[in-house]
Specification:
The chain has about 240 residues and is of the alpha/beta class. The protein is about 35% helix and about 20% strand. The strands form three sheets. It has a six-stranded parallel beta sheet with strand order 3-2-4-1-5-8, sandwiched between helices.
Length: about 240
Amino acid sequence: EYIGKCVRNNKRIIIPAFVLDRSQQVLYEITKGIQTGHIPANTPVKVFGTSTAEINKIYSTSFTKKEFEPYFSQAYWKDGPFGDIFKEYSLLEDVNYGEIAVASSGMADSVYSKEFVKKWIADPNTVFIFVGYQDPDTIGGKLTSNESLSSIEIDSNKYESKAEIKRFSCFSGHANYSQIKNILSNIANLNNVLIVHVEEENIGELIDSYNKDFPNIKFLAPGSGEHIPLSNIHQKS
């Protein structure tokens, strides 16, 4: 609905997306949006990235074979991974107003997405839609974490930030706290857990929360270069 509104308002829409899985999810949702009329049927959709193009072909050919049925949802088999709604590009091309671009580099810190930010971040009629986790130190992280951001530095050059920035967290590939709690609750005889994927400033708060929810489990957050032999943990358990 949001994308359809942007298209009808003649906005240029840039969606930075990870090449594997995220781009395909986005294309699926755009497909559904066109089918339901939320997005105008004649909207040009452009996909940038040679690797994205190759993986799209794997999804639409190999992953539609019967042998892969156990690995995908019923919706995937009913509707397919995505429709024939887009064209693929391997060179930087213009994205016009009223068009949608799905560009590789989900955090906009390299290749196509980065170049599109540099080219159009100062344009108030361009919308950048981020569809997943954004590392705070990346371009995507800086753009989505500060609504009042007036400028951003990229490759030692400063760019005014006038484009519209939108973020949808529903595409994140990371489990949230409640989901991980559910996983841990269903593992019998669990004594030790290593936390290896967390921002440093959140480690203490995260461990405190886990300790309250699981007082019988020891939670460890190894530092960079720290060695924790798993055999020793097992023996102590």
